[in-house]
Amino acid sequence: MNKSAISLSRITKSFGSTQVLKEISLDVMPGEVLVLIGASGSGKSTVLRIMSGLEHADGGEIWVNDVPLHDSKRSREICGHVGMVFQQFNLFPHKTALGNVTLALIKAQKMPESEANKRGMAALERVGLAERANHYPAQLSGGQQQRVAIARALAVEPKIMFFDEATSALDPELVGEVMEVMRSLARDGMTMVVVTHEMGFARKTADRVVFMDQGIIAEQGSPEQLFVNPQNPRTQQFLSRVL
Ligand code: ADP
Ligand code: MG
């Protein structure tokens, strides 16, 4: 039996009187790379935030790594099972790359510093930045800073990684190195949910592409299906604007 890494069933979410998610149902399988695309305001970030436990759904059920996130008493159990990377890197400027990567391990997980450093170095190695471990954020390029943020997320050894427009704040020439790290995680079998405007990444790396439109999943399929032969006029319209 194949068991989902993430399972959303009829998830709803409103902010004030605006319903931003309208009964979203979606399963992500272990090792799957799911790319969420859609216009600004369609609800992509809200879905990611709910999946990662940062936000509570109003209704529906959501299971992530067997943790029922809809159960507020148990939703905190997800911490440490998932990693999240945002558009803004949010590194502490007065801490080195390694210091940023190990902070949560030492403070939240109470890991001994020597062990945290070992894990942190392995994570920096994973993103190709071991030799920059003692550099401060200001001494790193934007692409390197975002790779440190990815290493920080990886250091907790998450089973799932979420990326919310991880390359949107980067100068164009720095996008590639971050995408390459994401691609290598995908190749290694990491379960990933990725919100991106990089349609090249979606085409090449996604196992499945989900198109969101005004709080619903309007269409989903393989990159081939979605990009070459979209069925929904809204998908066609969106793609004609971004491709
Ligand atoms: P996307 O990531 O696809 O651009 P979001 O999930 O960020 O979309 O937002 C979906 C809708 O929900 C938007 O209309 C946005 O303005 C609204 N929204 C998101 N977060 C909040 C919030 N914390 N408070 C009020 N409205 C919000
Ligand atoms: Mg967003």
UniProtKB/TrEMBL annotation:
<protein>
    <submittedName>
        <fullName>ABC transporter</fullName>
    </submittedName>
</protein>
<dbReference type="GO" id="GO:0005886">
    <property type="term" value="C:plasma membrane"/>
</dbReference>
<keyword id="KW-0067">ATP-binding</keyword>
<dbReference type="InterPro" id="IPR003593">
    <property type="entry name" value="AAA+_ATPase"/>
</dbReference>
<dbReference type="GO" id="GO:0005524">
    <property type="term" value="F:ATP binding"/>
</dbReference>
<dbReference type="InterPro" id="IPR050086">
    <property type="entry name" value="MetN_ABC_transporter-like"/>
</dbReference>
<dbReference type="InterPro" id="IPR017871">
    <property type="entry name" value="ABC_transporter-like_CS"/>
</dbReference>
<dbReference type="GO" id="GO:0015424">
    <property type="term" value="F:ABC-type amino acid transporter activity"/>
</dbReference>
<keyword id="KW-0029">Amino-acid transport</keyword>
<dbReference type="Pfam" id="PF00005">
    <property type="entry name" value="ABC_tran"/>
</dbReference>
<keyword id="KW-0813">Transport</keyword>
<comment type="similarity">
    <text>Belongs to the ABC transporter superfamily.</text>
</comment>
<dbReference type="InterPro" id="IPR030679">
    <property type="entry name" value="ABC_ATPase_HisP-typ"/>
</dbReference>
<dbReference type="InterPro" id="IPR027417">
    <property type="entry name" value="P-loop_NTPase"/>
</dbReference>
<feature type="domain" description="ABC transporter">
    <location>
        <begin position="6"/>
        <end position="239"/>
    </location>
</feature>
<dbReference type="GO" id="GO:0016887">
    <property type="term" value="F:ATP hydrolysis activity"/>
</dbReference>
<keyword id="KW-0547">Nucleotide-binding</keyword>
<dbReference type="InterPro" id="IPR003439">
    <property type="entry name" value="ABC_transporter-like_ATP-bd"/>
</dbReference>
